[in-house]
Amino acid sequence: xxxxxxxxxxxxxxxxxxxxxxxxxxxxxxxxxxxxxxxxxxxxxxxxxxxxxxxxxxxxxxxxxxxxxxxxxxxxxxxxxxxxxxxxxxxxxxxxxxxxxxxxxxxxxxxxxxxxxxxxxxxxxxxxxxxxxxxxxxxxxxxxxxxxxxxxxxxxxxxxxxxxxxxxxxxxxxxxxxxxxxxxxxxxxxxxxxxxxxxxxxxxxxxxxxxxxxxxxxxxxxxxxxxxxxxxxxxxxxxxxxxxxxxxxxxxxxxxxxxxxxxxxxxxxxxxxxxxxxxxxxxxxxxxxxxxxxxxxxxxxxxxxxxxxxxxxxxxxxxxxxxxxxxxxxxxxxxxxxxxxxxxxxxxxxxxxxxxxxxxxxxxxxxxxxxxxxxxxxxxxxxxxxxxxxxxxxxxxxxxxxxxxxxxxxxxxxxxxxxxxxxxxxxxxxxxxxxxxxxxxxxxxxxxxxxxxxxxxxxxxxxxxxxxxxxx
Length: 472
Description:
It is a single chain. By secondary structure, the protein is mainly alpha-helical. The chain has 21 helices and no strands. About 80% of the residues lie in helices and about 0% in strands. The protein starts with a helix and ends with a helix. It comes from Cephus cinctus (Wheat stem sawfly). Its main location: membrane. This is Feline leukemia virus subgroup C receptor-related protein 2.
């Protein structure tokens, strides 16, 4: 065990006694916990507004050829409308994590919704063919909201849901973003179609932008009215301990960051998770270009294939969340899912090389179930490795890794595709996934959150038994 692991475990152990005795005024009982029915309202509201944001991530890239023709820009320029979501995250996440940790869940959600809404309305006025710069500005506003949206599922789950619901709630929270991406894949090619008359493309874009702006406005209003901070009573012993730890230490932002950057398991996870989700981001960004290399006039097919990847991934995320809640086999699940992701990428490449469309759909669905489903699994691993650190900080750093890898892989794979074709891209994806799988295999099976939960329960029961013995 490293010095840092001992320090983290000591921090947890030190506060076990405090949460049992001090937090309960010396009664000797474990804290009162309660799960509130309105937790589901909070989760549904988050899913709605996260979907509104995520929808816009891929709305240009999935019709790259049409956007290039209409605005008169290069494929690389269109790729950057997707990469902004990854690029802006990196410099902003640390400031955002600090601010959102201070502001709380409610104001974090309101901030994200308002900025997303502003970006959506800016794009309404960017339909003219010489206003790609304006549509890029609007996209940039939307992209900055990722710094508050991406870390939210784990934090929302920890604040509102019981110990046996956390993994499932996290996966459902990620479901919101995945739902938005899925709708972006399928609806954008349906609304924005390839026309000989460029004015008709402009009409289609206008319909798309107006629709997104109106729905984003509705989401903002609902969040402002109904979204709440965390409940009065903690939903689990681990959450109560986490609150007690922060209340006692009041150490701010720097010390948790130092501990996280000395946590070897967490750093390995950042790289393995980053490679997996970075490959997913690269495939999603380049999907239109890849599909059109093999199938002529297949813009809608690209959208449906992207939908297959994301929808099956949503089922995968929920499935893995339930499995983790039931079994708590975090490392074993991660290794199996990662290995099957690599297998899925190989099948996807082979299906495209053969050129049989139905095989591409099947392979994409298999790939998506594991690769996209790994999103939620990574959040749960992060919580286990870093507990009792704030979820907003740890998941923020985790997402920095996948966004850095995403930008790098899009740029590298874009060049490879221009020079050698898409098979070079698939080979690169397999190499990245193999490296991530190896790192996952050699990562320790650390479960600090589960161990703490068991320890709190054990100590609480032991204390109660001692009291009963004294009475006798």
